[in-house]
Amino acid sequence: VLRGEIAVSRTLGADTVWVLSGFVRVRAGATLTILPGTRLVGDSAAPGSSLVVARGARIEARGTAAAPIIF
To answer: Has this prediction a pTM greater than 0.90?
Structure first.
């Protein structure tokens, strides 16, 4: 489960279904890397579950045809 702020760089792997609980914010200076085949879903019990990438933050998400990234 991901919640709150991501203030340091982090990598999400395909070995887990990642649940976004509430607003998940990637802060300036941090990089969120999402590996091929990774699946992210929103928590239906937490209003506003979403991923927000702040100005100055980075998201690197490069899926492939064989291993797409699914939001």
So the answer is: yes
